[in-house]
Amino acid sequence: MRAKDAEGLSLLGEKGVGYPSAYAPEVLETFENRHRENDYWVKFNCPEFTTLCPITGQPDFATLYISYVPDVRMVESKSLKLYLFSFRNHGDFHEDVVNIVMKDLIKLMDPRYIEVWGKFLPRGGISIDPYANYGRPGTKYERLAEERFRMHDMAGMDWVDNR
To answer: Among 5, 39, 46, 60, which one carries the catalytic annotation?
Structure first.
């Protein structure tokens, strides 16, 4: 990232920035996409995501996968890290967390397409892997969202008997 692109970013390069102790979408920052003429994927893999069960208060651990096709604005990765850390003391169900993250990122940067997939570790012998996606309405990205939703995790469905 060039210095000019970092204008307006308050977290990037700052040392000693504290981690939020509560859900904090306000820490998210963006910068300008310099390649708007291209469709391309930006993917974040977050293998140390933690949130709390809203009922028991027990920690839930997951790998969060965030993939998007940017338009004008892109999320700055340090702010995303701090934002995701803000869920550490936040109590919500797995499905809620995935949808909240997706909706916060849509509100922040209005991407052409985005998907968020949480691969939560098992608790009580069951793992939960919620997936949510969005494609800008009335565009090819809406069709992309429909297709990716339909085909989501098909590689893991080989055990299904389709007779």
So the answer is: 60
Q: What is the residue whose two structure tokens read 């702010």?
A: 79
Range of the domain at 105: 20-153
Sheet of 113-120, strands arranged across: 42-52, 59-69, 113-120, 131-135
Residue 56 belongs to a domain: yes
CATH of the domain at 138: 3.30.1130.10
Q: Respond yes or no: is residue 53 known to be catalytic.
A: yes
Catalytic residue among 53, 71, 92, 110: 53
Place of tokens 């803000």: 86
Q: Is 63 exposed, middle or buried (0-12, 13-18, 19+ CB in 10 A)?
A: middle
- The span from the CA of 29 to the CA of 43, in Å, is 17
Give the N- to C-terminal CA distance of the chain in Å, as an integer. Answer: 53
What is the tens place of the pLDDT at every residue in 19-68? 888 899 999 999 999 999 999 999 999 999 999 999 999 999 999 999 99
**Single-letter residue type at 35:** H
Q: Is residue 159 a part of any domain in this protein?
A: no
Give the three-state DSSP class for 46: strand
Please say if 60 is a catalytic residue. Answer: yes
